[in-house]
Amino acid sequence: MNLHEYQAKELLRQFDLPLLKGKAYVNDLKTIEKDLNELPGPPWVVKSQIHAGGRGAGHFKKPFNDKGGVQVIQDKTQVPVIANSMLGNILITKQTGADGKKVNRLFIEEG
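Below the sequence we write its predicted structure tokens.
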């Protein structure tokens, strides 16, 4: 069974486990600015959701900064910018091989 991080956390919440607040996005970031007002921060953590490990140490096919698929953001105005740069991009990690995997889902969490 393959679960994304945000899906696993949804399951854990059903058992009242203490988890950080977060919001998942699938192919669409329309509500991101409104949602950020409800997520404690700074910082916020923008996490690419692909079925592969090493997301934080990976890199994007279309680079937009020198960071990987998990980024800690201090400036609220930069969260949508980073999220838009990740969504639809190809994330390459040690587990994906050179072809990488397309990022169709993001998880934004309080830091």
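The chain has three helices and seven strands.
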